[in-house]
Design a protein that fits this description.
The complex is a heterodimer of chains A (273) and B (307). Helices cover 72% and strands 0% of the residues of chain A. Chain A has 273 residues and is mainly alpha-helical. Chain B is mainly alpha-helical and 307 residues long. Chain B has twelve helices and no strands. In chain B, helix 4 (86-121) packs across helix 7 (172-201), helix 6 (143-157) crosses helix 10 and helix 7 packs across helix 9 (216-228). The chains are: A mainly alpha (273), B mainly alpha (307).
Amino acid sequence: MSVLRYRAISVSGGILLTIAVFALVGPWISPHDYVTTDFDRQLVAPTMAGAQIFGTDDLGRDLFVRAMLGIRVTLLVAIVASLVSLFIGVAYGAVAGFVGGRVDAVMMRFVDTLYALPFIFFVILLMVAFERNFLLIFIAIGAVNWLDMARIVRGQTLSLREREFIDAARLTGVSTRRIIWRHIAPNLIGVVVVYVTLTIPQAILVESFLSFLGLGVQEPQTSLGALVDAGVNQMEGASWTLLIPAGLLALILMCFNFVGDGLRDFFDARHVS
Amino acid sequence: MLRYTLLRVLGAIPTLLLVIVLAFLMVHAAPGGPFDDERALPADVEANIARAYHLDEPLPKQLMRYLAGLVRGDLGPSYRYRDYTVSELIGAAFPLSLQLGAMAMLLAVVVGVSAGTVAALKQDTYLDRLVMALSLTGISIPVFVFAPVLVLLLAVKLQWLPAGWSSTTGASRLLLPVVTLALPQIAYIARLTRASMIDVLSRDFIRTARAQGLGTATVVRLHALKPAMLPVLSYMGPAIAAILTGSVVVEEIFGIPGLGQFFVRGALNRDYTLVLGIVVFYATLIVSLNLIVDVLYGAIDPRVRYR
């Protein structure tokens, strides 16, 4: 791994960590909270007075606290959604790769089919049908993002199943299901961790997309996507209400992409250019 | 080639059917009816509405009725826009979205392929690094962040371009929406093109072409471009899906009365039939476009026909 790349990963990782710490601690040390409206201080530009470093929104709520809360929600949704997609992807990919043959062909053909579909529209359909349930957002996003994971895991499993320790397990009479979970899955951890760092920004993207359209997180709760949406309506007079959440969202996404790309190159020799 | 095409067409039909049935069941599994209002209706009125929309029939029968309607191009009545059918609404809104999407796609392919090719030819120079850094940025930043920031900068602050759809009628109102819609795809296509162009340029037949004394431009145009385009061609399916998704955001931000805006409005109003109809329409569109891409792929690269 080149020095440059290593630096890119550590810098991006550092930025992410800093943002996460601020999101956790920020609302706690700020004198403001995320719901209290103050109609004497609507759309105040970022100022040091009263520690409102991000200014206020159209209802006079403190934007710093709301942005930090939004980051919390965004990160939480992304991590939980990634875990859901990890679970589905690993299970699906490991089964396809381990069983192999016709089952594998059918299962992977199904994945190919799903790849080209406008998944986001199905998520929106789910949102419409089942109210805007927070838990459902997690599951829906996770259910969208498992395809890449399934492909990667299948490829790894295909090569793993030819190894001696799998033959040994089979000889001693271990069931297929147990072989997959106890012998194949633990050996997939390296690749899986790398691809989770690439799944997280995708999940963030879907969540903020839904919240931006007003279909995701509901008021007074917020997320970065919802804040960008609110900022669009205020941008002519109060550009900070758009630029701050938009900048934070872009920064977080870029950092995750840098870390994920870098780690993938590190673990997967074929991708090194 | 005919056999290959037929196989592809036959393969697409079950996919489409699966998608339609899935979408239909999702909507009908929803708790509560589409006409549940704050104020309760008399029981007989409710029964009449249910009968008029065939909601009193068993689910399989409703599904069959819906599928039969689809074959005739009938997507049923809209639940919220009372006097319109879903097909009428789609027919009115889609041409605008199509225009927007097709222009964005064209822009993405032309700019993306050019940038990727230049980067590949100048591999490891500063120009190459610049293109790659820009494209990683383009991939990372979502359309709904790009679009409002560009509007703020170019329309509100500098006033070079109109901000909203309805504020002018000239072609300039298309510029920002098309560019923001195309940006992430330009980034992705540039990366794809660069990678495959570098791969192709190292092959023997390129060396042979160069040995015959052909200049770089001729080698790229006549020999390298076609094989290097194959990964880009297979990315067209996902790209179309991404542009459709992006158009929902772009239409919302710029206030363009296209299909994406109807979709969001329908979703917020819980207009079940409209949302279902648009999903079915989009899915059909994407599956057919993928089919065309597949067949084109077979026409350009004979090897895939015999796989």
